[in-house]
Amino acid sequence: MSGFANERSMFTYVIGASILFLIGVFGTAYLPFYDDQMQAPNENAELRNYSVDSAEYRGREVYIREGCHVCHTMFVRPVLADSALGPISQPADYYYEAPAMLGSKRTGADLMWVGNRWNADWHREHLINPQKILPGSIMPRYDYLSDQDMEDLIAYLMSLKPSPQTEGRPVN
Amino acid sequence: METQTSSDTYRPTKIFFYSSLVWLVIGMIYGLILAFKFIWPNFLVWGPLQVILQFGRIRPIHTNMLLFGWLTMANIGALFYVIPKLCRNQLSFPKMATFLGYFWNFIIVVGSIALTMGYTTVTEYGEWPLWIDILVVIGVAMLAMICFSTIANRNEKQLYVSLWYFMGSLIWLPGLYIIGNLPYKLLSGVPQFLIFWFYGHNVIGLWFTTVGVGLIYYLLPYLTKNPLYSHRLSLIGFWTIATFYVWNGPHHLQNGPIPLWLMKAGIIPSVLLIIPVWAVLANVFGTMKGKWHAVAHNTPLKFLVTGAIFYLITCLQGPFQSLQGPSSIVKFTDWVPGHAHLPVFGAFSYVAFSVMYYVLPKIVYHNIYSNRLMETHFWLSTIGLLLFTFSTWTAGVFEGFAWIEGAQYGLQFVEMLTAMQPFFWIRTVGGTLMFVAQIFFIINLYKTIQLGKKSQNTNESSA
């Protein structure tokens, strides 16, 4: 094993590992910003581009603080498992999303277009006691939220609707 | 007494090892609370605990504490022991290494407090707020400086394969941590989510995996008393993992809102990852040749080989579930946590257990207190992990097909969850076994450390 002269220099490994890493970064973390599909917002994105003093914006902050994104995706795919969830997600829908909350685990239902699904009263009852509205649900109770937080959060959830422009988009 | 501890060359390793055990226990308790909340959503909903232990807040605490408190600290402790051994010298900047131990603990404490209070950046495995990320980057820079300086000042010319992996990991970790934790208001949309998963996947693949594989290459020849099987295979393994792994992020958006070229750019390297994995496993099996009987009564070797096999299973399962068809069924289901626990607990925590059982006797100068406790640790961990993974995989497939049949929200979704309760129970039982196993692990190490201290004291008094 002692006959490999090129394995006596750290240089090969440091430079090689750095270059290969940077190529991957360029391909998967940098180039996507310059893809045509990522360049422009659509009407859905405009609907979700909340002004900082709106209830929806504050509601989104509550959504993040309580970790709703841990169990709920916002990510409708062109697959059978998502066929009843509404229009398929497009890159342009997320144009203003920061931080992006597409999610990785669906312990609860997808919320991409949840604003179309229920009304504000349903959300209030459900957030205060999920098991009362949906027996067998394993969602935590959010009865500890302040009235302000609760109403802001509901305003945010109700705002998650497709724009009329999206109506023609295929659902499956 | 004071002068004796400060002249102890293994002090940094000890601080990292002992701290990692504390985070192992606390992190797994958080995990168990999460598992119980799947069965009883109102578990521990009591006064302020309702908020402090709310599912959405503690899930990132569980992952961060175990990834950065337990496994990263165990890895750093191992690096501080193994690198000087392979370089035949002493660790550079020992005082900084000791300081880093306390500093890293501080990061885990404030990170967990921030997450408990609801300050999160949403980046999976990188949820800590920006100011804590800056501390992490400073810590990682210190770590890289200590390790690279030790390697540069080596007395052994040849760089052993473990050192390639360690050098690579120490370049990749700061790189991916900085890119993954850029201020989140700065970026937006799908490209930002791609960066989140660039980070989330690579922190596993280019830090935990590559340090773990380096440690396998270090320990295996010692534990089997066989030379490493193939030098060429280890070369192939290193350069292919360095080439392919970093491209894996986009497969987390399989079937999602990304262009087709990017989906291909993510999936093809995922499948090609079978090459570095198989290179490592072929090397492990080759080195084991003629020594398989030793696995029966050598628990550290048992952990190491089982860890390598779990690594293989993970990396066969991963490419499979990244493909369009399988992904359309199991993505977002409980299959995913099953898959995630396999490398982090099954493969690389097993390597860390093996390292601790091997290294600790050398730094506290006493043999491991009890073989029987080691065996108990192994079997409870393994049975627990298999119950955990098989229950989540099975539940995941059922959930995926239930969604296909329309149980996508509302009452139908909840009916599907109710039907999954038996699997949630098995998962909790498995998790409990995994937790109890670690208690035996820690008792065993504690006893060993105590006996080491006692025998050192008697040596001193007789001298």
Name the largest protein-protein interface in this structure: A-B, 78 and 92 residues
Please state the overall shape of chain B, judged from the principal axes of the Cα atoms: globular
Largest sheet of chain B: none
* Shape verdict of chain A: elongated
User: Percentage of helical residues of chain A?
Assistant: 25-40%
Mean pLDDT over all positions of chain B: 94
* Gyration radius over CA of chain A: 22 Å
CATH topology of the largest domain in chain A: Cytochrome Bc1 Complex, Chain D, domain 2
What summary fits the major beta sheet of chain A?
none
Percentage of β-strand residues of chain A: under 5%
Classify the secondary structure makeup of chain B into a structural class.
mainly alpha
* Percentage of residues in strands of chain B: under 5%
Total number of strands of chain B: 0
| Helix count from the secondary structure assignment of chain B | 17
**Which CATH architecture of chain B would you pick?**
Up-down Bundle
Task: Explain the overall architecture.
The complex is a heterodimer of chains A (172) and B (463). Helices cover 36% and strands 0% of the residues of chain A. Chain A is an all-alpha fold and 172 residues long. Chain A has two domains: 1-34; 41-166, Cytochrome c-like domain (Cytochrome Bc1 Complex, Chain D, domain 2, Orthogonal Bundle), CATH 1.10.760.10. In chain A, helix 4 (120-128) packs across helix 6. The longest helix of chain A is centred in the first third of the chain and has 21 residues, at 10-30. With 463 residues, chain B is mostly helical. Chain B has one domain (2-454): Cytochrome C Oxidase, Chain A (Up-down Bundle), CATH 1.20.210. Chain B is built from 17 helices and no strands. In chain B, helix 8 packs parallel to helix 11. The longest helix of chain B is centred in the C-terminal third of the chain and has 42 residues, at 421-462. The two termini of chain B are 15 Å apart. In chain B, 57% of the residues are buried. At the A-B interface, helix 1 of A face helix 2, helix 4, helix 6, helix 7 and helix 8 of B.
